[in-house]
């Protein structure tokens, strides 16, 4: 659900590349990452601390990882998602409608056409790149998404609220980047994050929807670079 964040044309080698842990790619089913992935730190045994950014359900998985294995997360940037994202169906209605479409598609062009129709503010080129990361061609020549379907509760909500405790447990203040046109994160979510992490940095990107990395890739890259590398430089001099 978040591999389509990779817009390689906009990510110089000196900047952290977007990354999603493996479980996210297969477990975007609306379950809180704690239950969807079990012991989420297990795939990272022996890993070293890193600096990455995550969006959508990947952001919630990264939050789980940062709380469970703070030694692996030096800096955390979360793009347009919080544990409050699923508390009202209206926040994720567009995402759910898109993800819960056909099981597969007759061709790449068909899956591209649907993606373009659901993302009117994005360029076809960026969406094409996203599909190549987020979908696969099956043995019968049809195309299917790599992620699982969202599974909301009976009232249409998605309960990620247990992960607010992980926000409180973070040892390093995160940066939350919101898309100004996105309904996925609202002011109440931002206020709750700041209540639990008063030193968190909040950025709102004008002209961006939920897919900040697709709508405003250069602006997002600049924010990530500033947040991660400027902090590291100060720490090294410290």
Describe it for me?
Mean pLDDT is 77; it is low at 1-38 and 43-49. Helix content is 41%, strand content 12%. The chain is of the alpha/beta class. A hairpin with a 5-residue loop joins strand 3 (135-137) and strand 4. The chain has two domains: 20-94 and 149-176 and 198-204 and 215-231, no CATH class; 101-146, no CATH class. The radius of gyration is 17 Å and the shape is globular. The strands form two sheets. The chain has a four-stranded parallel beta sheet with strand order 1-2-5-6, sandwiched between helices.
Task: Name the features.
238 residues; 4-stranded parallel β-sheet; globular; 12% strand; 6 strands; two-stranded antiparallel ribbon; alpha/beta
Percent of residues in helices comes to 40-55%
- N-to-C SSE series? HHEHEHHHEEHEHEHH
Given helix and strand content, the structural type is alpha/beta
Please report the number of helical segments: 10
Beta-strand percentage range: 5-15%
Low-confidence spans: 1-38, 43-49
Please state how the strands of the largest beta sheet are arranged side by side: 1-2-5-6
What's the overall average pLDDT, rounded?
A: 77
**How does the major sheet shape up?**
4 strands, parallel
What is the 3D form? Answer: globular
**Nearest-angstrom radius of gyration?**
17 Å
Gap between N and C termini: 38 Å
Count of discrete structural domains? 2
Oligomer: single chain
| Total number of beta strands | 6
């Amino acid at each position: 659900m978040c591999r389509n964040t990779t817009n390689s044309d906009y990510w110089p080698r000196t900047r952290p590349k977007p990354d999603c842990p493996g479980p996210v790619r297969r477990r975007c089913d609306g379950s809180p990452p704690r239950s969807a992935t079990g012991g989420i730190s297990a795939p990272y045994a022996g890993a070293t601390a890193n600096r990455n950014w995550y969006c959508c359900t990947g952001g919630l998985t990264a939050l789980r990882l940062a709380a469970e294995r703070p030694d692996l997360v030096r800096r955390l940037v979360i793009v347009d998602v919080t544990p409050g994202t699923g508390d009202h169906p209206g926040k994720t209605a567009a995402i759910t409608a898109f993800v819960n479409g056909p099981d597969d598609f007759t061709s790449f062009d068909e899956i591209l056409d649907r993606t373009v129709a659901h993302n009117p503010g994005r360029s076809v080129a960026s969406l094409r790149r996203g599909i190549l990361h987020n979908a696969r061609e099956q043995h019968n020549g049809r195309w299917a998404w790599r992620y699982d379907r969202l599974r909301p509760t009976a009232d249409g909500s998605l309960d990620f609220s247990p992960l607010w405790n992980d926000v409180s447990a973070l040892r390093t203040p995160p940066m939350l980047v919101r898309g100004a046109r996105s309904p996925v994160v609202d002011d109440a979510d931002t206020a709750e994050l700041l209540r639990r992490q008063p030193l968190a940095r909040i950025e709102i990107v004008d002209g961006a929807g939920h897919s900040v990395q697709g709508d405003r890739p250069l602006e997002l890259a600049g924010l990530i670079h500033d947040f991660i590398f400027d902090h590291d430089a100060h720490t090294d001099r410290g």
